[in-house]
Amino acid sequence: MTDPAPDPDPRSATRLALITGMSGAGNSTAIRALEDMGFEAIDNLPLPFLKRLFPADAPPDADARPVALGIDVRTRGFTAQAFLDRLATLRAAPGVAPRLVFLDCADEVLIDRFKTTRRRHPLAPLEGAAVGIAREREALQALREHADLVIDTTDLSPHELKARLAGLFDRAARLRGLAVCVQSFSFKRGAPREADTVFDCRFLRNPHWDPQLRPADGRDAQVARFVRDDPLYADFMDRVAELTLMLLPAYEREGKAYLTLAFGCSGGRHRSVVAAEDLTRRLRAAGWSAALRHRELDDQKTT
Fold first, then answer.
1. What are phi and psi of 18, to 5 degrees?
2. Domain 10-174 has CATH 2.140.10.10
3. Which of the two residues, 249 and 57, has the higher pLDDT score?
């Protein structure tokens, strides 16, 4: 099943986004992504609370923020039929305009993700992930068939999933048509597989060798000043920004939906971070919707 065309103005048309799907397919990532776009987000909401959030007799509130709800097999009172019954009521209510997003993923990739995170599957805590995945797939089949959007995350990184959702739900991203992600990384861990273009920042002076700057990262003002004071930095950034701004409209005309630009350095904490921050600011100032990710710094937060 392919993704249908998004709403002309999803932020105004979609008052309610319902996120469901296979455990491990990225449901929590999707909820956080929608929250970043301005949705009020609630994960693992008990089904009975849906009626309280959207009572049938409540008049539409044009000024209310859109809502993103995560509902899956962990949810209290969850069955596919109960969920579909609630969904039918919401679709009949004026001004709600719910969209059901189902996240799917290949079984073998889900198994690997459960092994990596060392988490137990909610439907088979004592029997192994494969058993739980089979049970869940059978239990959710009806939801998948009734979903407005089915997104397969088998080959998507978390930030690519966020870009996909931005393209579907974020008005600014839809107006531009091309979802751009800029990220920093460390060459020690290898370049991101999803990167379309990689810039090597290791020719710049390295703040790592300054004991006062080493503990900070490229978002620190002193570190950023140190990197920008390199005689080659300004010309490098000007040329990268000029090239990028020349290519983005061409990629857009060719129908490219997602573009990832990556800056690398030795540790992924200083030079590449400054460059990614600066390019993102330039792209946004030029009117492009650009997401920003610092792989090594973001991953450090989750460890």
1. -105, 120
2. no
3. 249
pTM above 0.85, yes or no: no
Q: Which residue has the tokens 């305009």?
A: 97
* 72 labeled part of a ligand binding site: yes
73 is in an annotated binding site: yes
Mean pLDDT of all residues in 171-192:
77
Annotated binding-site residue? 75? yes
- Which residue has better confidence, 177 or 194? 194
| Residue 74 assigned as binding residue | yes
CA atoms of 32 and 50, how far apart (whole Å) = 19
The ranges of the chain annotated as CATH 3.40.50.300 are 10-174
